[in-house]
Amino acid sequence: MQTKDYVLAVEGLTVSFDGFKAVNDLSFYVDEEEIRVIIGPNGAGKTTVLDLICGKTKATDGSIKFRGQELTKKSEHKIVHAGVGRKFQNPSIYEDLTVLENLEISYPKGRTVFGALAFKRDDVIVEKIHEIAETIFLTDLLNEKAGLLSHGQKQWLEIGMLLIQDPDLLMLDEPVAGMSVAERKQTAKLINNITKGRSVIVIEHDMQFVEDIAHRVTVMHQGKVLSEGSMERVKNDPKVVEVYLGH
Amino acid sequence: MKKVLSNFMPKNDFVMYAILLTILVVVLPLALDIFRLNLVGKYLTYAFVAVGLVLCWGYGGILSLGQGIFFGLGGYCMAMFLKLEASSPENTAIQSTPGIPDFMDWNQLTALPWFWEPFNSLWFTIIAVIVVPTIFAYIIGVAMFKRRVGGVYFAIITQAIAAILTILIIGQQGYTGGVNGITDLRTLLGWDIRTDSAKYILYFVNVILLFVVLFIAQFIKTGKLGRLLVAMRDKEERVRFSGYDVANLKIFVFCVASAFSAIGGAMFTLQVGFMSPTFVGIVPSIEMVIFCAVGGRLSLLGAVYGTLLVSWTKTSFSETFPELWLFAMGALFIGVVLAFPNGIAGLYEKLKLNERLTRLLAEIRSLRPMAITSYNKTDNTNSKTQATGSSKKSSTDNKDNLSIDDPNLNNAPS
Fold first, then answer.
1. Which of the residues A47, A94, A95 would you substitute to probe the B interface, choosing the one with the greatest number of B C-beta atoms within 10 Å?
2. B320 in A contact zone (CB under 8 Å)
3. pLDDT score for A19
4. Where are the domains of chain B?
5. With 80 as the cut, is the pLDDT of residue B25 above it?
6. Which of A238-242, B75-79, B233-237, B371-375 has the lowest mean pLDDT?
7. Whether residue A162 has pLDDT greater than 50
8. Within an 8 Å CB–CB cutoff, is residue B235 touching chain A?
């Protein structure tokens, strides 16, 4: 109805795997420039929600509207073209290519076969790559094979690969998993920096990190929304304490 | 312009291409008699397939065990043209229906089948040699990759198609010449292809075409598409969620590999003088993968050397111990996969022959200005730093040297 006011409007979303409803009649809305964090116990369906939004999994029922466009029927690459970027849980980068080449492939140009054949690395692209590399703290490692990066640097690189696509909606699945405390702080700063002009959905378990970045928090449990609101409110919600935060 | 060129082919690669060209155009024709040179020509037609496999399998991670399909289709297209020319009414006057190929007459056909008609034209044939196999590859590609069939399943299906095509060719004897294939090919537009001079010319044409194919492959490999293929082999999902239609990339590279194979097939027919189902089926298709693996599945030139080496060994070995060859081939493949996953090219990298060669070349180059301007010290040191600079660059520049513990290798057929 009023979905246009939201960047993302998920309504009645359901997916069932052989009768098991991993996501069950889920609805939530993400505002412009909002950082939304989804938390919840293991198996709550958090990653599945991201899979559904980016088209990796097809919904059984319900709708996902992104700036008024229905995403549930689109193929993955079309969803990317519409402006949705997604980071996977395990750092998903091209280990045999250099950091620069990793970023270059993610640059939104020459995305068809013949476009790629005609693609030239011009100054605009190189400049953009350097700009992004600086944001993700990898300027000195541009010509290094990505496989040689540390775990944290790989996570940053993947975030950088999304940034260079300049998506309107950025989805990050556990961006600080496996990072050191210092790296977590740096990543929180990074995420706060990069959200200017875009909306972000983050899945995370680290409560300190969630408090650092979240505008609003959605708590999921058994495929449904258990609670939603500011971190303060959610933390004090007895239902949330019972299923998630309590132990 | 110069920059574009050096992006396309680093200096080091250029030297390697020049070495191969010299071997093929100067050394071998001078060293071998025409019988042996013709054999080399035959081996080189397999190299087209191996080069295609480097792109498709080495870079794209798509293992096709059915490249014989496309080699065969290209070869058959060429053979059909040559056979029609050899079956002029004068040549076939003793048949009950003169003017059609002999095997059709033996199978009681009384008219040329409709799909043979266009092969009276050389231009149609040349186009068909490339287009027919490419369309076939496109159909297979769309059917498989759009449904996300990949990896081992794709390999098995291509193998099954190779088997089916062989059975089809053998079964339709009246239309295809059956198990004997299309034999007794004589002339190309009146030019006798069986003479020694024709064999020399065809050999050189073959080498030129091989280099054209190598340059196309080099262009694809060094451009963004080449990097995309590597990325796709590594993390297909990431490429898909970076906004690429992965299926299209796979279809393209599979079609390119098929077109290369088909050109090889057509040159095979011209140089060997016949085409038969033995070159379509499972065994030749797997042999071609072995050529590529032995040469190094990430190196275009390695694939050519691998093909020459394995084929040469096969010929010499099977002349002496025919029954042992298959075992030797199997052992070779297992040995390569276990010991040198990147084949000859990988071994070459490991021994750093590459850097030694560049250093040697750089030294030669730096010697020259030294001789001329030996009194000018600044100039001298300048050229020296340049030389060491270029040798350093080559070691980091080498894209062929990819990670050895590539997961795809463990999937290789053994």
1. A94
2. no
3. 84
4. 2-410
5. yes
6. B371-375
7. yes
8. yes
pLDDT of B303 higher than 80: yes
Chain B interface includes A117 (CB < 8 A): yes
Residue A18, token pair as written in the block: 């052989």
- pTM higher than 0.90: no
Three-class DSSP labels, chain A:
CCHHHCCEEEEEEEEEECCEEEEEEEEEEECCCCEEEEECCCCCCHHHHHHHHHCCCCCCEEEEEECCEECCCCCHHHHHHHCEEEECCCCCCCCCCEHHHHHHHHCCCCCCHHHHHHCCCCHHHHHHHHHHHHHCCCHHHCCCEHHHCCHHHHHHHHHHHHHCCCCCEEEEECCCCCCCHHHHHHHHHHHHHHCCCCEEEEECCCHHHHHHHCCEEEEEECCEEEEEECHHHHHCCHHHHHHHHCC
| ipTM rounded to 2 decimals | 0.89
CATH superfamily, with its number, for domain A3-245: P-loop containing nucleotide triphosphate hydrolases (3.40.50.300)
Q: What is the mean pLDDT of chain B?
A: 84
CB contact under 8 A, A88 and B238: yes
**One-letter amino acid of A227:** S
- Tell me whether residues A117 and B249 touch, CB distance under 8 A: no
Highest mean pLDDT among B91-95, B103-107, B359-363: B103-107
CB contact under 8 A, A106 and B244: no
Reported as a single tens digit per residue, the pLDDT across B388-412 is 444 444 444 444 443 334 444 444 3
Residue from B268, B291, B295, B270 nearest B280 by CA? B268
